[in-house]
Amino acid sequence: MDEIKGSASSADIQAIPDSLTQDQIKAAQSAVDAAEAKVASVEMGQGEAPVNYFEDTNTKNSDDKPVNFYSLTLEDLKEYIKKKGKEQFRAQQIYKWVYEQRVTDPEQMSNLSKQFRADMPKILSFELPKVIKHLKSVDGTQKFLFDMGEGQSLEAVLIPSEDRRTLCISSEVGCNIACKFCYTGKQKLKRRLRTEEIVGQFMQVHDLLGENERISNIVFMGMGEPLDNPEAVFKTIEVLHSPWGINLSRKKITVSTSGIVPEMWRIGKAKVRLAVSLNAPTNDIRSMVMPINKKWNVYELLDACRDYYEATGESITFEYVLLKGVTDQLEHARQLFKLVRGIPCKINLIPFNEHPGSGFERPDDEAVQAFHTELGRLGAHVLLRRSMGRDIFAACGQLTSQAPNRPETMDISNSKLAGLPKHLREAQASATMQNS
Ligand code: SAH
Ligand code: SF4
Q1: I need a labelling partner for 272 at 20 to 30 A (CA). Which of 184, 199, 414, 422 fits?
Q2: What is the pLDDT of residues 361-397, one digit of tens each?
Q3: By alpha-carbon position, which residue is closest to atom 8 of ligand 2?
Q4: Which residue's CA lies nearest to atom 4 of ligand 2?
Q5: Strands 273-277 and 191-192
Q6: Lowest-pLDDT range of 78-92, 123-137, 271-285, 408-422
Q7: At residue 422, what are phi and psi to the nearest 5 degrees?
Q8: What's phi and psi for 223, nearest 5 deg?
Q9: Which of 168, 182, 345, 396 is catalytic?
Q10: Known catalytic residue at 155
Q11: Higher pLDDT, 188 or 123
């Protein structure tokens, strides 16, 4: 059962002070200051949460240019081809060809009229972002680097476990939320991704994997803040959920947010799972490491989590990065327990993953274990997340769009690029060769 019921005795809970002492808060602040001093030469983000969303221009297209198929939900496609004078039921047929059969050559779509097949290249394009690197970790994690044009790149990570294959996808190139411990947050937002670029990450990885290696879950925990790009993110969810397409269950999709509170209702409305990057045991400490907390504080954030639970009945995942001296003390575990008590949830502990120029330190294993044990003792449902893919820089907070000389090793020897359907292989071959 996920709910934190407080199985600790009432004496245990009463023994937890209402807040940290001034000394404890000062200790966290000086650990943050020390980390910042170490990275003074590295440019940090601005610390302002962006609130002006770019308009989603995906379905707006000049009449003479084909629209990217992967930007369209089934409803969008129906509307669009109706405007082009075609029967709407053709939309389902095209969806099935593309998502079920992976056929994008109109000539092979045998149940469409000859005329429609001839017209299709003028109406729809099937371009996907190109995979330019495919890395495999010793632990089975795989990282895919995509060329997003204009010198920009992004990363998606496939994390295997016993019963699932989870694809961690990106919603933006860079991120303006500027959490102090996050590598992506150090690169300011370059741009928000379009729907076809997010769907494209899924489809490219899907095509690179074998029949028996299907992606079972997706998490928006790659680069960027999904709620800073809500139009494209929620359209992607509709595309991947469509029974005529990939048919991915809503329960297998998780949106992780740093806490753009006014947009969180969308996660409940889409009926997908909510993960929240909580990362601190108190409001004060959260403001030290996540500037967004100054805009929407932790109490507003937790209220939005309660609203989500009311709306969906689904429990919430809180992600909690353990930073040495800042968020990893036993007293922090107790405060954290108090903070989220009463919200049906599980807590995912993520020991800080180091990255170039980071001033923070990863706590030692004993401190991590003690934190985990204390939360468990109090009655929290707590998981210690194994840091998958650290050797290829694919672990949480290590993703970047600019990575000159990063100490990652590349192994594409067992990449399935060679086994791709011809049209996909040709589209990717040149880019991949340059990097292999
Ligand atoms: N922007 C979204 C999703 C991407 S970040 C969000 O913040 O929720 C995915 C997760 O990685 C977040 O929970 C974040 O707290 C965590 N993370 C970021 N940097 C990290 C680091 N260096 N070590 C460990 N986890 C990190
Ligand atoms: Fe952006 Fe998430 Fe990194 Fe914060 S943790 S900077 S919100 S990607």
Answers
A1: 184
A2: 999 999 999 999 999 999 999 999 766 666 666 666 6
A3: 224
A4: 179
A5: unpaired
A6: 408-422
A7: -55, -45
A8: -80, 140
A9: 396
A10: yes
A11: 123
Element (H, E) at 337: helix 330-340
256 Cβ inside 6 Å of ligand 2: no
Whole-number Å distance, alpha carbon 204 to ligand 2 midpoint, is 24
Q: pLDDT digit string (tens) for 225-280?
A: 999 999 999 999 999 999 999 999 999 999 999 999 999 999 999 999 999 999 99
User: Residues 417, 428: contact at Cβ < 8 Å?
Assistant: yes
Tokens (6 digits) for 249: 């269950």
In the block, which residue shows the tokens 């405060």? 335
Residue 400 confidence (pLDDT): 59
The confidence score (pLDDT) of residue 415 equals: 41
> Structure tokens of 433?
């060769």
If you average pLDDT over every residue of the chain, what do you get?
85
Strand partners, 124: 67
**DSSP, res 193:** P
Which CA distances in Å does 386 have to 17, 60, 159, 317? Answer: 31, 43, 11, 16
Which of the listed residues 44, 225, 228, 229 should we mutate to test ligand 2's pocket, taking the one with most ligand atoms within 8 A of CB? 225
Q: Is 154 in the pocket of ligand 2 (CB under 6 A)?
A: no
Best residue for ligand 2 mutational test, from 48, 51, 169, 175 (most atoms within 8 Å of Cβ): 175
Q: Which residues line ligand 1 (CB under 6 A)?
A: 181-182, 221, 225, 256-258, 277, 279, 319, 321, 350, 352-353, 355, 396-397
